[in-house]
Amino acid sequence: MNYKNERKTWGWMYGCAALFVASVACAESTVPETIIFAGDDNYPPFQWVDESGKNRGMIFDLEKSLVERQGRKSEHRLMDWASAIDQLESGQVDVVAMFASKKRSEKFLFTTPFYFLTHGIYGLPGSPGISDVTALSGKSVALENKGYAEEALAENNIAVIPVLREDFEAALRAVINGEAEFAVVPQQLANRTIALEKMDLQSLGPPIWPRPYVFAVSAERPGLHAWLQNELGLVISSGRYYDIFERWRSQIEWSENAGWWRYKWLLWGLAGVLLLALLGYGYSWQMRTLVQRRTRDLEGALDSQKKAENELRHWASHDRLTGLATRAGFFSQLQAISRQKKNGVLLVLKLTDLNEIICGLGFQIGEGVLAAVGQRFQKQNFLAVGHFGRGVFAVLAEGTVASIEDLIDVSPLSVGGMDIEPRFGVGVARLEGRRCDVTEVLRQAETAMAVGASRRRYWMHYHPGMDPDPQALFVIRDFRRMRGEGLSVCLQPQVDLSSGAVVGAEVLVRWNHPSLGELSPAYFVPLLERAGLISRLTEYVLNEAVRIAAGLRRDGLPTCLSVNISAVDLLETDLYRVVLQALEKYQGRPEDLRLEMTETSVISDPEKVSEVVARLAEMGVECSIDDFGVGFSSMSYLRQFAVREIKIDRSFVTDMLEEDAHYAIVRAVIALAHELNMTVVAEGPEDNDTVKALMDLGCDRIQGYVFSRPVPLSAFYDIRTRTLAVGDRLEA
């Protein structure tokens, strides 16, 4: 390793090591008192066991130096290389020095490199030269078992006939013994051993695979890694590493003439005082050079540290994929702009089809679209641009805008050879001057974007009516905590128009909150749906309906009770199991229960809903379509689903005598349902004239205030026994 490269390497190492100083304090508590190092027992001059059984080598000296500062103890276990790797993986040892590689990084954490090594290709004298390692394909090659060379050949798809040996020297001897044609081993070690052992081998090509030499610990021990990285940085920055390296330099950077030149200089030194003087001057010059070199190294390390710190600060507030400011960075920009008394319009934009792009074209294309959108925004003249992650961008522009096309380029993007048109959901808010609350403006824009998404609109300006109800959070919290406390049900009768008898009822939920009082279902039911709690409420109402229906039947008043179910109940819960358990618990009968589903809940996954409805029908539980006509009405639903009843929405029934179009719709629905042998229930009639009109059209049943409001169970018992005529009211 030449001096120029060495200086660059150490400067880089200084900077990296310094970055770990802050984190090592909390890591020290996870470091054992005795650090167990392991390595190859025949890897001179880096580490080996000499003839007397003592551990020697540069790495051995460096490892001892690492534990000295804090007075920790070290244990050094040298063995064959494959065993060292296995014991590091199993946790029997703490640290092993090795070549860094991508494959090994999956299992181990690496320190800053403390040296760089290359590999060489060796063969018998007279063997043809090998300039490209791919020429080894199909040849028998001696390798160290679990060494880097074995891994590198596999990674580069070079299919050799491996001859595995316990260490690099045994691999070299395999070539001499005719067991392999070539050996691929670390070059610095091989050159030294070939010269000292006078092996009849030669290098057949240039160095290959320059690799950093590092200390490795298990990936499951980040605390030990941080401590080790810190200690290595201190050993390097204090100069102790240089002292160790200088002791072993002649052995590592091996030259056959190294011993001779030292002896020659010694003879010349003994020749006379003049030469001693020259040597003294040379030594003085060398020391000055060393000091200057270390000073430059330290300055380089400080520069590297400053650059690293600046880079860390930058990426702490910027997204690496798009290069744009993160939420925190964008917020800081907004604050700075606000202090300058600048006005602007803030847009929060969500890439609405990002999930579809990823599912349809792959994750890489999705990332490519995000990067391309970020680049496009950067090129536009915005005051500030940010990416909050998962396709949510934010831009601050001057002036005012009327539509997204005034400000955002939505032309197709070229990604991966495809033209992809970005689509955004946008929330807009105003940033006005110095007195503006930046946090509030950002919240307003995000609120507008969320409201726009819920209303299926791609562009929404913020207004105060969008703000969430603070009480809603407490209502949701209390519903979770109280587990049904305060809930009750009431029943709204359904009257058969041909007989005047009460033949059924819809079960409606009520909630008497302990502190807020009686809450309207129109208020708390949508809250529970958005909070993902509607299935709990449905289960409660189903159980109450089955319990009440079973009691009515025992009392000789069999009545079919209807319960509303949501899309979540149909698609995300085992509704069949819930109904079955309720029937078994209260000994109810399936024909006494009817489930009402809205068209909106059906459209999201018609096939799944059809399966659920069919299973319920097989059990004997009928289903009906509620609020028919106001959702995504489709005649195919009437054919696809096993439903026996249609409930016409009150919005058509209430004013059917005033609105000719509504009257025509009611008439058509009744006629169509009867053609399909379905029962028709009209919701919401409030006067006798409407009831008479419905009777003339052949409507089967009515549920509305004209006969009765929802009543508690005790009142329903009295109503159930009565027969009604037009003009009668069931309530006292």
Characterize the structure shown.
The chain is of the alpha/beta class and 732 residues long. It is built from 27 helices and 29 strands. Strands 1, 5, 6, 7, 8, 9, 10, 11, 12 and 13 form a ten-stranded mixed β-sheet that branches. An eight-stranded mixed barrel has the order 21-22-24-25-26-27-28-29, surrounded by four helices. Helix 3 (58-68) runs antiparallel to helix 9, helix 10 packs across helix 11 (273-316) and helix 13 (354-361) packs across helix 14 (363-379). The chain is elongated, with a radius of gyration of 41 Å. Mean pLDDT is 82; it is low at 1-26 and 257-279.
Features:
29 strands, single chain, 10-stranded mixed β-sheet, disordered N terminus, 732 residues, alpha/beta, 46% helix
